[in-house]
Design brief:
alpha/beta; D-Maltodextrin-Binding Protein, domain 2; 318 residues; aromatic amino acid biosynthesis; EC 4.2.1.51; phenylalanine biosynthesis; 3 domains; 5-stranded mixed beta sheet; prephenate dehydratase activity; elongated
Length: 318
Amino acid sequence: MQTEPAADQNRAYSYLGPAGTFTEAALKQVAAAVGQEWRSVNNVGEALADVTSGRSTAAMIAIENSVEGGVSATQDALATVPGLRIIGEYLVSVNFVLVARPGTTLADVTTINAHPVAYAQCHTWLGENLPAHAHLPASSNVQAASSLLDGSIADAAIAPPGIVDHYDVEVLARDIGDNRNAVTRFVLVSSSRVLPEPTGADKTSLIIELPSDEPGALLAMLEQFSTRGVNLSLIESRPIGDALGRYRFVVDIDGHIRDERVADALLGLRRFSPNVIFLGSYPRADLQAVEYHAKYDDGIFIEARDWLRGLLSAEPEA
């Protein structure tokens, strides 16, 4: 169960538009957004600006794809825009259709308009069926299709399956994605500092900088998790941008900041790293309970602290 802002009459939600995008499909999963204002924006930066300015309560943005990996624009924005928290995640199955203006046949297609990520996920089908085509990049999957009706030089476009519900285009081919199990992970980002309560099936997102570029630095960071039984479900590096060879790490871990093992790992990171950005603890979209060894139960950490407190206060040993 996702933790979301309570619905009222004065809330807006931003998403990468226009209508018909996979981002809109993710936002449709947010119960609190039903019946509220939805703001269609052009890019991640605009969506997050809506949140930080107060124009929107939250923004839905793509953060990871099962085929292409992390969405670098989102990762970089979350690292550089202060005051943001992830309050929920949502999964959307991803597949594509090839669409064209009415009357166009597959044999007519020589140029295809497509978002670069969608294009990359359709290479096999395109290579087999349209080996001589040219690619015209688009800003979104829906924009690729809508451009066909706005004078685009492209003959066809790669778009989401529901595009025909929004635009007068014909489907030339369905299920053209290379991986039919492809999934995109979206996150709902807010400026709220209120933490969702732990569910037992939670995820915590962090961005971490290494203190120095030296042998063992990455291992030392990873040990903050391994010695506390905390599993990493994602780790990716992104350039910091201030010098060549300087990177930050985008990390997702299993568990909630209120879990003792996770909290203790964050304390270790804080002592170790010059910059740790806490992006939030929130329910996992798949609702899969986090598994860990019993020696990392909350009670073990609490007992250890009590034991140390007793030593420091000269309490008699039991």
